[in-house]
Amino acid sequence: MRLVITRPLEDAERQASKLKTLGHEPLIHPLLEIVFPPLTPLRLQGVQALIATSRNALRGLSLNASFEAAKRLPIYCVGEGTAAFARRQGFSQIIRGEGTAKDLLPLITHSANPSAGALLYLTGQTLAFDLETPLKAAGFAVPRLIVYEAREVDVVSARHLADRLRAGVDGVILMSPRTATIFVDLIKRFKLEREARAITCYCYSEAIAAALREIEGLTVAVSSRPTETEMMKLIGPAPFLSTALADLKEALGKR
Description:
- The structure is a single chain.
- The strands form 2 sheets. The chain has a 6-stranded mixed β-sheet with strand order 3-8-7-4-5-6, sandwiched between helices. The protein has a 5-stranded parallel β-sheet with strand order 2-1-9-10-11.
- The protein has 2 domains: 2-31 and 154-244, Rossmann fold; 34-151, Rossmann fold, CATH 3.40.50.
- It contains 12 helices and 11 strands.
- By secondary structure, it is α/β, with parallel strands linked by helices.
- The chain has helices spanning 9-21, 55-62, 67-70, 79-89, 101-111, 132-137, 155-167, 177-189, 193-196, 206-210, 228-235, 239-253, and strands spanning 2-5, 25-28, 32-35, 47-52, 75-77, 94-96, 118-124, 144-152, 171-174, 200-203, 219-222.
C-alpha cells in the first residue's frame, strides 16, 4: 500500500523504515515541524524525577547544558517508543507508561511521593493531555518546561500533500489529535472530501479518530492500544507479503 506518514520528519523517517519492512510504500508528508527554543541550563536541585511525553521532549532536553546531570534522574516516559529513545540517550532509571500521557497519571501517583521533590514536566507548547493539573491536585510540585514547539507546516507543504492525495494513495497515518485536526482542515481547504473517502485513516488512538468525525464517510481504523507495535499490527503487511508468508507457512507445514 501507498501510505502517507504525517508525523514530524525524524519520527516519520523511522516509521517509514518499519513500513518498508512490511512491504509498503511510505510517503513522507509531515504536517508538523519541530522547533527547539534556546533554554538556559536547567535547575535540577530538588527535582525527584522527569516526565517526558514524547521523543521530542527528550530531543529538546538533550540540547540543554544540564542534560548529563538530568540523565542521572529517574524519568517517566509515555509509551514504549519514548522509553526506548530515553534508554538510547543514556537514561537508566526509566518508568514506562502504556502509550498516552493519561496512562502516566496513575503510574506517577502510585510510585512517586509528593514530599520527595518536584516532577519536572518536559513538554511541547501544545498538550494533548495536561498532566500538570491532576498531579498538582495530588500534592505534587510540577514545574512545566516547554522544550519544543510543533508548528504547522507552510501552505506549500500542505499543497504538496493535497496533490499527493489527488494522485491517489491507500492510507494516511495519523499519530496525534493535532495532526488529525490539521489533516481535516487540509481536506476542507483543498476540497478533497472525495479523495479522502477513498483511503483509510490509520489512527494511533480513539482521540485522534474523534478529530476526523467532521468529514463524513471516512474509513477509520484505530490501533487497539496506543503503541507503535500495535499500529504496525493494525496496518499489517502488504498483501503480496501476506500471501508469501502464508505460502511459506503452508510449505513448512507439509514437511
